[in-house]
Design goal:
single chain; elongated; about 325 residues; alpha+beta
Amino acid sequence: MVAVRVLAALVAAGAVVLFAAPHVGVERWQVIAPALPARGALAVAASAALVVVLLLLVTRVVRLRLGLPLAAALALAVGLHLPVVLARGVVGEPVAAPAAGQLRVLEWNTNGRLTTPDVVAELAVAQHADLVVLPQQALRTDDDYRAAFTAAGQRMVRVNDELPSEQVAVWASPGLAGRYTALPGPDPRKAVELVPDNASLPTVLALHAPWPVGPGLPGWERDVDWVAARCSTTSPVLVAGDFNASVDDFGGPRLGLCADAASLRHSAGVGTWRTGLPPLLAMPIDHVLATPAVGRVTSFTVLSSEDGSGTRHRPTMTVFTPTG
């Protein structure tokens, strides 16, 4: 009896803490930060456990005074978190059809060599991507990527510096690539800032942030603060990459003036990691954000079509349309 009450108290306390964290400014704390992206999985697990406990109570397999505290705690967890996940959107939407003037951004943490360049290139060409951001893609396969893009029918150019230690690759159509100069981010290996030669083009930030747990938390905070600082402008800024965090970790659907594209398109509950889990149970940790000056977000799509490709992350496809 005591053990069940302790378990119920822990479930209730955990549910309240995770729900309140983004509202009271503790979303970056140890333990809380890495747990927040699992809100969808936790909500579903609590819902399933609640059904089981209620069935045990109805069938009298478990006595009321034993099972009721746990049922109440699970109901609290479901009531706090499931509506949030559903309100953010868990179904997703198709990729917007190509049209003149669009900026089409494919972002995919390929987990290094777990996916071959031809798979990435074929997806980029099929989605008519203008910009391809590949967090955790080591430079040593650049020649393979160039050949793969060409073989798929679209020449693409590596935009950021080709350094042996670089782990974020940004590719763009030739006309777009030549307009940018690359600058190092907070961690030059895993973050890059692409500065355009024309104010009408967006500054592009590409990154692979550390997992916000243990010694990785300070580095994650540094990267997120860097993004927020670069987004504190009315100029066009576009951010893409693996944040290892959900919008809860940001404290909301924005960093500075950059809005989360998934949140704008009612898809922020669709998980990108891991591919072995259904989107509702997976963590939504891959993001594209932008200031309003970049354009209207016409679609944001988590692509489940590549779940068998070998990577642990699902790619995301974001389409921007000029507002002018």
